[in-house]
Specification:
Helix content is about 70%, strand content about 0%. It is an all-alpha fold.
Length: about 100
């Protein structure tokens, strides 16, 4: 009898995960879930951003070979997301200044 190999996911990168993959592979420890919910309440992201944000701590956890997403993975992902939003805000301000000076 041949041994069967584990099923291969239909995505190769965490960024390519669909909602069903996120539900399956982005399991949060209890304290991580609490932190994530608090952050989502404060950041107020869209549903699309919510799933996008969950992919990042999954990648961080993968780099540490952690099966579950832990609170420090969430914290690191929130820091990256906050930095990204600040950079976007700076780009908008910079673009507005350029437009006004024309």
């Amino acid at each position: 009898m041949l041994a069967t190999s584990p099923p291969v996911p239909s995505y190769q990168l965490n960024g390519q995960m669909k909602t069903r993959h996120i539900k399956k592979y982005c399991k949060l420890k209890e304290d991580a879930q609490t932190l994530f919910e608090t952050a989502m309440h404060k950041l107020g992201p869209s549903a699309r951003a919510y799933t996008r944000i969950l992919k990042l701590p999954r990648t961080i956890a993968d780099l540490e070979t952690s099966e579950e997403i832990q609170s420090h993975h969430i914290s690191e992902a929130i820091q990256y997301r906050t930095l990204y939003l600040r950079l976007q805000e700076g780009d908008k301000l910079h673009n507005e200044q350029l437009f006004c000076s024309i």
